[in-house]
C-alpha cells in the first residue's frame, strides 16, 4: 500500500453564492450536513485510508475561517490537516501546479483529490486497488451512472466496461454521450503533476511568472486540459459507484445530502458495520429512542436522525426521519421534525412542525408554527430569524435577522 496524501478543494467565498443566505454566516464547506461540517465527511474518508500521511485543504478562503476546523480535524483523526490558500484563480489544476512541491513533499505514492462540494460513500480503497491493477495509469476517477437528462449537468465519461479505462471525456456536454458522470473524486499517481506542469508551460508559452501576476494569464482546467487529453490512452481508469452521490450547489442539495448520509449511517449500523456507523455521532432507527440530549430525555425517533449531545429535546417531541439537530438547540413538547436541518442555538417552541426546511443559527420558531417546503424548494431561514407563533411559512428564503409575523408562501424575504 503506497503512502498517500489527500487534497480537498474547498473553493472560496465568491464561489458559494447559490448557497446564500447560509453561506453568509459560515464558509460553505463547513456547513453542517448530517450534523458534521460538509468536508468532515471527506476528511473522515481520507483518514481511513492506510498510510494517509497528510490532508490538505486548498482554496480561496482566509486561513482564519478554516483554522478551527483544521485544528479539530487534526485532533479527531490523528493525521495532519493543513490549508494552502490560492491567491489567484488559476483553474482547477492551477492550484495543484502552484503547490506541487508542497503536495509532493515526502514522496507520496498516490494523491487523492476530492471536490469539497460533493458527498458520497468515498470508495477510496477500491480506487487504490484499480490504480494498482493498472501501473501505467496516472489517474482513477469515481463515476456513477445516472439518467440521460441528469448526465448533461456533469462531466460525461465513456468507459470500457471490461477494463474500466476512460475512453472519452466531455464536460457538461449538451449532446448525450454517456450516462456515466464524473463524481469529482480522483486518485492520481505523482506523475500527473508532470502532465500538469507541461500543460501549464504550453498554455502560457513559458510565461510561468506572468501566470501569477497578470490578470489575463491562462488557467488550467483539470478536466478539459488534462483528463480529456489523456483519455483513450490507457492512462486513466474509473471505478463506478452504485451508492449515493450528491453535488451541493444550493441549500436544497445540502438537505438532500444530509438525508443520504443519515440513511447510509443507519443502514451501516443495522448491518453491524462499525466503520460505516461511525459516520455520524448519534444515529437511531425506527421504534428506538435517542438518549443523547442534554436533559437525558427519551424522545420518539422515526427513521434516522442526528441529535447533538448538547441539544435539549422534549420527551414529547417526535424526530425524524432525516432530521439533524445542532448544538444547544431547544426542541419543545409536541414538536414534529422531519427532513430538516436545525442549526446551533435554535429554539423551536411547542407543537411547531418543520419539514423540508433549514433553520439558521440562533433562530426562533414560535408555538404551533409550521415551516415547510418541497424537496426542490425547501424553506430556508438565515441566522437569527424569528417566526412568530401560529403562522405557516412555505417554500420561502429568509435572510438573516428578519422577523416573520404573518404566513408566507414562495417568497424571498430581504
What labels describe this entry?
single chain, 414 residues
Protein architecture, described:
By secondary structure, the chain is an alpha/beta fold. Strands 14, 15, 16, 18, 19, 21, 23, 25, 26, 28, 29, 31 and 32 form a 13-stranded mixed sheet that branches. The chain has a 7-stranded mixed sheet with strand order 5-4-1-6-11-8-12, covered by helices on one side. Strands 17-20-22-24-27-30 form a 6-stranded parallel sheet, with no helix packed on it. Strand 2 and strand 3 (36-37) form a beta hairpin. The longest helix has 20 residues, at 251-270. The radius of gyration is 22 Å and the shape is elongated.
The SS-based structural class is alpha/beta
- End-to-end Cα distance, whole Å, is 54 Å
Give the biggest beta sheet.
13 strands, mixed
Tally of alpha and pi helices: 11
Helix fraction, binned, reads 10-25%
Number of strands: 32
Short summary:
The protein is an alpha/beta fold. Strands 14, 15, 16, 18, 19, 21, 23, 25, 26, 28, 29, 31 and 32 form a 13-stranded mixed beta sheet that branches. A 7-stranded mixed beta sheet has the order 5-4-1-6-11-8-12, covered by helices on one side. Strands 17-20-22-24-27-30 form a 6-stranded parallel beta sheet, with no helix packed on it. The model is unreliable at 279-294 (pLDDT under 50).
Write the layout of secondary structure elements.
Blueprint: E1 4-11, E2 32-33, E3 36-37, H1 40-47, E4 52-59, H2 63-77, E5 81-85, H3 94-98, H4 100-103, E6 110-115, E7 118-120, H5 124-133, E8 139-145, H6 148-151, E9 155-159, E10 166-171, E11 180-188, H7 192-204, H8 208-211, H9 222-230, E12 236-240, E13 245-247, H10 251-270, H11 274-277, E14 289-290, E15 299-301, E16 305-307, E17 312-313, E18 318-319, E19 323-325, E20 330-331, E21 336-342, E22 347-348, E23 353-359, E24 364-365, E25 370-372, E26 379-381, E27 386-387, E28 392-394, E29 397-398, E30 403-404, E31 408-409, E32 412-413
Parallel strand pairs: 1-4, 1-6, 4-5, 8-12, 15-18, 16-19, 17-20, 18-21, 19-21, 20-22, 21-23, 22-24, 23-25, 23-26, 24-27, 25-28, 26-29, 27-30, 28-31, 29-32
Antiparallel strand pairs: 2-3, 6-11, 7-13, 8-11, 9-10, 14-15
Amino acid at each position: 500500500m503506497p503512502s498517500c496524501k489527500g487534497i480537498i478543494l474547498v473553493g472560496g467565498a465568491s464561489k458559494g453564492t447559490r448557497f446564500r443566505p447560509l453561506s453568509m454566516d459560515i464558509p460553505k464547506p463547513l456547513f453542517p450536513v448530517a450534523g458534521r461540517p460538509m468536508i468532515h465527511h471527506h476528511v473522515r474518508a481520507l483518514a481511513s485510508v492506510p498510510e494517509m500521511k497528510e490532508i490538505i485543504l486548498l482554496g480561496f478562503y482566509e486561513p482564519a475561517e478554516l483554522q478551527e476546523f483544521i485544528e479539530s480535524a487534526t485532533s479527531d483523526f490523528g493525521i495532519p490537516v493543513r490549508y494552502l490558500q490560492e491567491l489567484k484563480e488559476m483553474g482547477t489544476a492551477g492550484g495543484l501546479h502552484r503547490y506541487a512541491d508542497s503536495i509532493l513533499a515526502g514522496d507520496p505514492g498516490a494523491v487523492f483529490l476530492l471536490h469539497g462540494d460533493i458527498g458520497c460513500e468515498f470508495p477510496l480503497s477500491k480506487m487504490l486497488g484499480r490504480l494498482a491493477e493498472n501501473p501505467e495509469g496516472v489517474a482513477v476517477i469515481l463515476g456513477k451512472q445516472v439518467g440521460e437528462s441528469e448526465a448533461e449537468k456533469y462531466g460525461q465519461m465513456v468507459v470500457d466496461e471490461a477494463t474500466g479505462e476512460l475512453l472519452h471525456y466531455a464536460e457538461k456536454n449538451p449532446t448525450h454521450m454517456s450516462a456515466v458522470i464524473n463524481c469529482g473524486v480522483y486518485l492520481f499517481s505523482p506523475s500527473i503533476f508532470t502532465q500538469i506542469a507541461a500543460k501549464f508551460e504550453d498554455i502560457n508559452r513559458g510565461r510561468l511568472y506572468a501566470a501569477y501576476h497578470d490578470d489575463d494569464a491562462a488557467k488550467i482546467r483539470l478536466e478539459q486540459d488534462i483528463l480529456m487529453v489523456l483519455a483513450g490512452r490507457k492512462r486513466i481508469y474509473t471505478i463506478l459507484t452504485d451508492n449515493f452521490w450528491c453535488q451541493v450547489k444550493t441549500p436544497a442539495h445540502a438537505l438532500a445530502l444530509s438525508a443520504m448520509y443519515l440513511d447510509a449511517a443507519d443502514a451501516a449500523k443495522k448491518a453491524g458495520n462499525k466503520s460505516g456507523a461511525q459516520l455520524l455521532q448519534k444515529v437511531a432507527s425506527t421504534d428506538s429512542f435517542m438518549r443523547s440530549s442534554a436533559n437525558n430525555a427519551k424522545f420518539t425517533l422515526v427513521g434516522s436522525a442526528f441529535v447533538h449531545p448538547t441539544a435539549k429535546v422534549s420527551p414529547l417531541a417526535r424526530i425524524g426521519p432525516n432530521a439533524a439537530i445542532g448544538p444547544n438547540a431547544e426542541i419543545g413538547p409536541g414538536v414534529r421534525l422531519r427532513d430538516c436541518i436545525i442549526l446551533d442555538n435554535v429554539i423551536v417552541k411547542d407543537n411547531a412542525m418543520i419539514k423540508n426546511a433549514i433553520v439558521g443559527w440562533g433562530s426562533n420558531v414560535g408555538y404551533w408554527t409550521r415551516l415547510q417546503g418541497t424537496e426542490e424548494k425547501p424553506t430556508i431561514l438565515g441566522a437569527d430569524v424569528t417566526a412568530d407563533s401560529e403562522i405557516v411559512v412555505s417554500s420561502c428564503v429568509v435572510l438573516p435577522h428578519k422577523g416573520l409575523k404573518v404566513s408566507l408562501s414562495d417568497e424571498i424575504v430581504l
